[in-house]
Design brief:
The structure is a single chain. It is built from four helices and ten strands; from the N terminus they run E-E-H-E-H-E-E-E-E-H-E-E-E-H. With about 160 residues, the protein is an alpha+beta fold.
Length: about 160
């Protein structure tokens, strides 16, 4: 496992996110470890592949624990922020009051070149502590219309990995 992280999700109010997932507009994102950003010179538009290992809500409770592949794109402003795609926001019912455990394995450059992240090593440098996952203020996930959910995630088969 190259770079394992527990990251806080950043973004907009859940009601705005509800609308943004229908348009594909950037709604939620995470910041990768600065060392990984610097070591791999991640640029806007590059993609980072890996796996999501778990999702925690603002009470620190694990709400998702099935390992699943992810591919998140670096924001247009910086390679330090990865945008969470609308399908993943809907699938995991994410808000800016959630935390995600991920393993980042590859960088896919805008040229198509694929680079392994810390091959043969395991780095754990950015890990949100358990005691800070219990938020005093949080808002619930606001689900988009049923047809949007169906369009984004309802028609694909689960692709679970171990």
């Amino acid at each position: 496992m190259p770079e394992k992280c527990r990251l806080n999700v950043c973004g907009f109010d859940p009601m705005l996110v509800r609308g943004y997932v229908t348009t594909g507009f950037r709604a939620l994102w995470v910041y990768i470890p600065e060392e990984m950003y610097e070591d791999y010179k991640i640029k806007p538009g590059d993609k980072v592949r890996g796996k999501i290992l778990g999702v925690y809500n603002g009470d620190g409770e694990k709400t998702w624990n099935t390992v699943r592949p992810i591919e998140w794109t670096a924001s247009r402003e910086t390679g330090l922020a990865l945008n969470i795609p609308p399908a993943d926001i809907v699938r995991y019912e994410l808000t800016e009051f959630h935390f995600v455990e991920v393993v980042f394995e590859q960088v896919v450059r805008t040229t198509g070149e694929v680079e392994e992240i810390y091959p043969g090593e395991e780095k754990v440098r950015k890990w949100w502590p358990d005691e800070k996952m219990k938020l005093k203020f949080k808002l619930a996930y606001a689900a988009p219309e049923a047809h949007v959910v169906e369009q984004l995630v309802g028609m694909e088969e689960p692709q679970e990995t171990e």
